[in-house]
Amino acid sequence: MKPLLAAPLALLLAALPARAADHEVRMLNYGAEGGMVFEPAFLKAVPGDTVTFVPENSGHFVQSIVLPDGVAPWKSAIDQPFTVTLEAEGLYLYACPPHLMMSMIGLVEVGRPTNRDAVTERAAKLRPKLIMKAERLDALLSQVTAD
Ligand SMILES: [Cu+2]
Q1: In the structure, what pLDDT confidence band is assigned to residue 123 with cuts at 50, 70 and 90?
Q2: Cα 44 to Cα 8, 11, 21, 33, 139, distances in angstroms
Q3: Centre of ligand 1 from the C-alpha of residue 68, in Å
Q4: Mean pLDDT in the chain?
Q5: Residue 93: strand pairing partners
Q6: What's the 63 CA to ligand 1 centre distance in angstroms?
Q7: Relative to the CA of 4, which of 18, 50, 70, 118 has its CA 20 to 30 Å away?
Q8: Of residues 137 and 17, which shows the higher confidence score?
Q9: Does 16 score more than 90 pLDDT?
């Protein structure tokens, strides 16, 4: 291709929307970080991506705890795969309610962490409920992009 034609083609390709990614988070009785885990528990994504929660063992479901402003709360049915579209920028903190005391929690960072303060506030209230492995909460928060 002649160089004069290559430049307009590159511009055209750059204008096409990027394909949204589908991330997979497994719900496990036992994973690399011990018992009752989301894997991976921390995820980075961009608006428009989806996350599918896949129950690989029975007894798990997923419920949102803190979401970016304007995003409706969500909750899956027990033992069923569940897909969420990440429409807004911000942090999506979620848990498996039956195993909350065992710190079965996860966090998705979509674009910029616009609701960091809300998540930090809620994490302080959540911590006493995490009877085992509460350090998982700190590990998740520590992975959020700094301002
Ligand atoms: Cu669970």
Answers
A1: very high
A2: 32, 27, 11, 19, 14
A3: 23
A4: 92
A5: 66, 107
A6: 10
A7: 18
A8: 137
A9: no
103, two tokens: 């710190």
Q: In 3D, which of 44, 51, 38 has the Cα closest to residue 95?
A: 38
C-alpha span between 45 and 78 (Å, rounded): 25
Q: Name the more confident of 65 and 6.
A: 65
How far is ligand 1, taken at its centre, from the CA of residue 7, in Å? Answer: 52
User: What CATH code is carried by the domain that includes residue 41?
Assistant: 2.60.40.420
Ligand 1 center to 19 CA (angstroms): 31
Tell how far the Cα of 99 is from the centroid of ligand 1, in angstroms.
Answer: 5
What is the whole-number distance in angstroms between the Cα of residue 8 and the centre of ligand 1?
51
Q: What is the pLDDT of residues 82-107, one digit of tens each?
A: 999 999 999 999 999 999 999 999 99
> Could you give the number of structural domains in the chain?
1
- What spacing in Å lies between the alpha carbon of 97 and ligand 1's midpoint? 7
Let me know if residue 55 belongs to a domain: yes
Strand 105-110, strand 42-45: pairing: parallel
